[in-house]
Design brief:
Layout lengths: L2 H6 L3 H19 L3 H8 L2 H22 L10 H12 L8 H7 L17
Helix pairs in contact: 4-5
Organism: Flavobacterium pygoscelis
Protein name: BrnA antitoxin family protein
Length: 119
């Protein structure tokens, strides 16, 4: 178990589920529709960027909480609140260069439904 799961008193599976749900909410905050959401969610570079930023946030979390491990006055709920505060900043980050690579180029061409020419 890593330090984060120990402090939050959750299992490794619960931590991975929490991280995946967080990644999905973050991807959703970057997009405007389902197609963009799917392309961002499946993008390897954006996922690597997110995990790198999450690691930075977790490092900050550990710096803030290492002194309180084993304290009787600090509960796992307090650690969870601190973790949420440290990781919430990710919602203000946008990997603009990576998102530009995924931008849909041009406007989709429609299919003509009616023939407007009168013979």
């Amino acid at each position: 178990m890593n330090k984060t799961t120990t402090k939050l008193q959750i299992t490794q599976d619960a931590y991975e589920t929490m991280t995946l749900e967080f990644y999905m909410r973050w991807c959703e905050s970057l997009t405007g529709n389902v197609r963009q959401f799917q392309s961002i969610l499946a993008n390897k570079a954006i996922n690597a960027y997110f995990l790198m930023e999450l690691t930075k946030s977790e490092t900050e979390f550990h710096k803030l909480t290492d002194l309180y491990v084993g304290s009787t006055t600090v509960s796992p709920l307090d650690f969870k609140k601190c973790y949420n505060e440290c990781t919430y900043r990710l919602f203000s980050l946008r990997p603009v260069a990576l998102l530009e690579d995924l931008k849909i180029k041009g406007k989709a061409q429609g299919i003509p439904v009616f023939n407007l020419s009168q013979n």
